[in-house]
């Protein structure tokens, strides 16, 4: 059976080149251990600014906060830029399918994006987080229905749902309707409750779930990075909790905390088919006579030119 890898590691905050170097090294390690797909955490390239408020209390902005945002923005990447090209070329050379979280810059707005890389076609999808969580809305824009992408792989069809998007029932239903067989959940949610969420989704969608979370400590950030609140785990900024779950709800690997590691699991493509004997949330268990979901997949641009 084919093997999937979930990478639990921290980015190199505000350093694009170092983060891409680290990603390629971990991609190579996963491939060398037999993986055909590797899933990385949310915001792996570009970083997650844990603990920073960007000087934006209600009704105020500070010059220091704007300088923080400038540095953060300078660490973002564009889909057509050299950094994404390096990742794409590495996936091609390794023959590895990759899902990796990036901070994407488009114009003057940043997006939290899950990049899907196919070793033969390059960028197969780039899903922008539809609903940034809480204060993330200050620094990240909102995605739209045009980036609800999937990617076909030898292990099955891959879809990506980022962090607390996984608590949006209609978004999950959309992914199930797209036929997702490997449901990838890049995240920075390191709470113990996350494992229960991933198990629920595996059972609900009858799908393999691969969730990758960062593990990163405060000393990985620059000395002047403002941790403006007390972190719940002391010097650990994000503590991991990555996990792989089968369509039956069986945990195949993880959750693992407080270390960098790569989780591996064999993927049985037929497990999904067997699991749909008694439950198909978009088929024989869906009741379309009572419930209906419409998904708008056209791009939503603020300005259109005829």
Structural class: alpha/beta
Mean pLDDT: 94
- Percent helix range: 10-25%
- The proportion of strand residues reads 25-35%
Which residues sit in consecutive blocks of at least 5 with pLDDT less than 50? none
How far apart the termini lie comes to 51 Å
Number of helix segments?
7
Q: Spell the H/E element sequence.
A: EHEHHEEEHEEHEHEEEEEH
Q: Which geometry do the CA atoms define?
A: globular
Give me the Rg, rounded.
19 Å
Number of strands: 13
The largest β sheet comes out as: 7 strands, mixed
Summarize this structure as a short list of keywords or feature phrases.
13 strands; seven-stranded mixed β-sheet; Carbon-nitrogen hydrolase family protein; 7 helices; nitrilase activity; single chain; C-N_Hydrolase_sf; C-N_Hydrolase; hydrolase; 306 residues
In short:
With 306 residues, this protein is of the alpha/beta class.
What does this protein structure show overall?
Belongs to the carbon-nitrogen hydrolase superfamily. Nitrilase family. This is Carbon-nitrogen hydrolase family protein. InterPro entries: C-N_Hydrolase, C-N_Hydrolase_sf, Nitrilases_CHs. GO terms for molecular function: nitrilase activity; nitrile hydratase activity. Keywords: Hydrolase. With 306 residues, the protein is an alpha/beta fold. 24% of the residues lie in helices and 28% in strands. The chain has seven helices and 13 strands. The strands form two sheets. Strands 6, 7, 8, 9, 10, 11 and 12 form a seven-stranded mixed beta sheet that branches. Strands 5-4-3-2-1-13 form a six-stranded mixed beta sheet. Helix 1 packs parallel to helix 3. The longest helix is centred in the N-terminal third of the chain and has 17 residues, at 16-32.
């Amino acid at each position: 059976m084919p093997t999937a890898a979930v990478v639990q590691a921290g980015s190199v905050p505000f350093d694009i080149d170092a983060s891409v170097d680290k990603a390629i090294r971990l991609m190579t390690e996963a491939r060398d251990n037999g993986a055909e797909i590797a899933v990385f955490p949310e915001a792996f390239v570009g970083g997650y600014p844990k603990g920073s408020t960007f000087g934006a209390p209600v009704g105020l902005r500070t010059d220091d906060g704007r300088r923080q945002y400038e540095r953060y923005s300078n660490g973002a990447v564009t889909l057509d830029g050299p950094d994404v090209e390096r990742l794409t070329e590495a996936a091609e050379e390794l023959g590895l399918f990759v899902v990796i979280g990036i901070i994407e810059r488009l114009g003057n707005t940043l997006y939290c994006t899950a990049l899907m890389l196919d070793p033969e076609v390059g960028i197969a999808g780039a899903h922008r987080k539809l609903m940034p969580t809480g204060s993330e809305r200050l620094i990240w824009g909102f995605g739209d229905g045009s980036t609800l992408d999937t990617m076909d792989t030898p292990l099955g069809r891959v879809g990506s749902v980022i962090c607390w998007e996984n608590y949006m029932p209609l978004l999950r239903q959309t992914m199930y309707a797209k036929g997702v067989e490997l449901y990838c959940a890049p995240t920075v949610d390191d709470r113990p409750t996350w494992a229960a969420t991933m198990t629920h989704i595996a059972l609900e969608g009858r799908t393999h779930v691969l969730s990758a979370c960062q593990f990163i400590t405060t000393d990985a950030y620059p000395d002047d990075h403002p941790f403006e609140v007390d972190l719940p785990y002391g010097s650990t900024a994000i503590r991991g909790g990555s996990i792989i779950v089968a369509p039956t709800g069986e945990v195949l690997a993880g959750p693992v905390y407080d270390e960098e590691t790569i989780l591996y699991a064999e993927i049985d493509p037929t497990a999904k088919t067997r699991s749909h004997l008694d439950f198909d949330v978009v088929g024989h268990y869906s009741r379309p006579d009572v419930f209906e979901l419409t998904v708008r997949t056209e791009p939503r641009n603020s300005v259109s030119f005829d």
